[in-house]
Design goal:
By secondary structure, the protein is α+β, with helices and mostly antiparallel strands. The protein is 42% helix and 15% strand.
Length: 241
């Protein structure tokens, strides 16, 4: 960071005072909390986290120093306020795919159409990508497509799964137009997100780790090879509760 962009000493001190104020406010709210999921405590926690993070960044930019504790990120998930003993639940899932091999996709759709023709079902829409997608998703359940996506010329993108709780089941058909729009965030029991963004963050962290491979090779030249490297990486999953 250039000297012109560095924060002033006054800005750093003001950020430190903001942390003190947020800390006092957080303690006061905790002392008079109304219950385990008091939204005031949730808000005070986020304000304290944001103030501490701002101070940590300014301190480093100005003095090249860090705080002796890890700054937690502000929790964007509101506290659960749904029923303690729900009578119904909803599982909302979105999975994104990229069509990376359209010819493979259409070939699979033609096989499905050929089988339908033998059964006396006339259809011929697999000569376009959107038509082939209609055939594919009309034939297979979404979970089967997820497990066999490479066979169909698809590549996985981001995905998210939400579990929500309620006292009563939804009326048939009432949410079909926009399934996520009617979700009350405070009734989300748990949520699981998978994204390439998280892989990028993991890779960035790995770049900061010193490469000790050369030193280890020198020390282990005479050690036997214990076996081939494992192929691939496990999928990283972020969960928010």
């Amino acid at each position: 960071m250039s000297d012109a962009a560095q924060p002033t000493a006054a800005e750093v001190r003001a950020a430190a005072e903001a942390v003190k104020t947020a800390l006092d406010r957080h303690l006061a709210v905790v002392e008079r909390r109304s219950g385990e999921d008091d939204p005031a405590v949730y808000q005070a926690f986020n304000e304290l986290a944001a103030a501490a993070e701002a101070y940590d960044e300014l301190l480093y930019d100005r003095y090249d120093e860090v705080t002796p504790f890890e700054i937690p990120g502000a929790d964007e998930t509101p506290p659960y306020t749904g029923p303690e003993e729900p009578n119904a639940l909803s599982v909302l899932i979105r999975r994104d795919y990229a069509v990376v091999e359209p010819q493979r996709l259409m070939a699979q759709a033609r096989r499905i159409e050929a089988a339908d023709d033998e059964a006396g079902v006339g259809a011929d829409v697999s000569d376009t990508v959107h038509g082939a997608l209609g055939v594919l998703f009309g034939e297979f359940e979404a979970d089967e497509i997820a497990s066999r996506h490479k066979e169909f010329g698809l590549e996985e993108g981001d995905s998210t799964l939400w579990v929500t709780a309620s006292d009563e089941s939804a009326e048939p058909g009432e949410w079909l137009e926009a399934p996520f729009d009617q979700v009350d965030p405070q009734q989300v029991v748990c949520r699981f997100d998978v994204s390439a963004v998280f892989d990028d963050e993991f890779d960035d962290d790995e770049d900061d780790v010193p490469d000790l491979e050369e030193d280890l090779d020198t020390d282990l030249d005479e050690e036997p090879d214990e076996g081939p490297d494992e192929e691939g990486e496990p999928e990283r999953l972020r969960t928010d509760h």
